Amino acid sequence: MMGNRLNRRDFLWRSALIGCSAAASPLVTPMSFAAAPWDNRLVVLILRGALDGLDALRPVGDPNFATLRPDRGAGTGVALDGAWELHPALAPLVPLWRAGELGFVNATSTPYRDKRSHFDGQDILEAGTTGVGQARDGWLNRMLQAVPGIEAETTYSIGRGDMLLTTGAAPVSNWSPDAALSLSPQTERLLEMVTHDDPLFRDALGEALVLSGLVAPGLAGEILQMAEMMEMAEGGAMDSGGVMDRGDMQDARKALAEAAKAARSAGGYDALARFAAQKLRAEARIATFSINGWDTHAAQHRTLQGPLESLASVLLTLRDDLGPAVWGKTAVVAMTEFGRTARLNGTGGSDHGTAGLMIYAGGALRGQQVTGGWPGLAEADLYARRDLLPLSDVRAHAAGVMQGLFGLDRAVLEGQVFPGLDMSGAARLVL
């Protein structure tokens, strides 16, 4: 058993380092486990910040895609077939695709519509309900409540504790890495400037910096995104009066990039995947954690690269560390709170949208397919003339995976696990 105590300094640091994108990218990534009376394994990855599915899996067979994304047309990604190309950052996953161990569900979403808040979208995604605030436990925990004899594996928990996804009456153990890196004076100054106009965040950050010079490894993606935004802002660099000039901006951007590199070298998401695999090879049967950094409002051609690389590395790490026998009994499901706009915005990013992409992998699943249907990208086909139109409820696909893996009754899934769900639209994903 691991055993470091959570002290006040670490708690305040992890509590204080929040900002306008805190809901999109929680800085502490907890991991939850549950042992169960079956041999199959389930890993649920929450992609916080709203993955742009149109970029991760490019619909190059749709003639309107090249109009909406002129720099993402056919030939710019890794071809899966004539209709779909992977983002180049996902190229390492092509062997999984060819082995039938990787697939996608397109044009899917939770029941959340129109307001496009990360807080609300993630609440609905993890609660598994049709509206905000309808449940204070998560769908994965409610699934465990329906199975007699569930026991929590004894592990160690720090930071945020349970995700909403696993919160509830069923016993679940938690673990979070205790790795960190030191902030340079330049990065401290940059963080002060980022929060300059928000007294609440500025004061909390100031206290945290006094108490601790630490940053969690999961912050690497967010640091890189901040560096990209600093680079974009460099042309209109601010002057004096306590704000950065062009030289300060360049120094801060360099410091951020160095901090990101150090954070990634500390282990990052691969460390979570290795720990998950270790537990899943033993008594644990379910694991869940988050991958952050998907809120790509600007310079998406660069800011999406890192999170996609992290996702690809996590999937391959799980496969390699689980080994062929356990991987063959494993399903990995990656879900996000909503998709992004079909058109890029003026800064080369994409804004909050509606339908998105569910990514799945594992030897227990039916891969080498893109399922879920395709609504089209003509303006008249878009939701509110801006977003990919939802054709299915992502909860139905998650329920179908659990039904196939664990033999759960449909009535339990539709009534208890996902209240109000109709599973008739679930894709057949389990072998």
From TrEMBL:
Lineage top rank: taxon: Bacteria
InterPro entries tied to this protein: DUF1501 (IPR010869), TAT_signal (IPR006311)
Membrane-crossing residue ranges in chain numbering: none
Coiled coil residues, start to end: none
PANTHER family: BLL7424 PROTEIN, DUF1501 DOMAIN-CONTAINING PROTEIN
Descriptive protein name: Twin-arginine translocation pathway signal
Taxonomic path: Bacteria, Pseudomonadati, Pseudomonadota, Alphaproteobacteria, Rhodobacterales
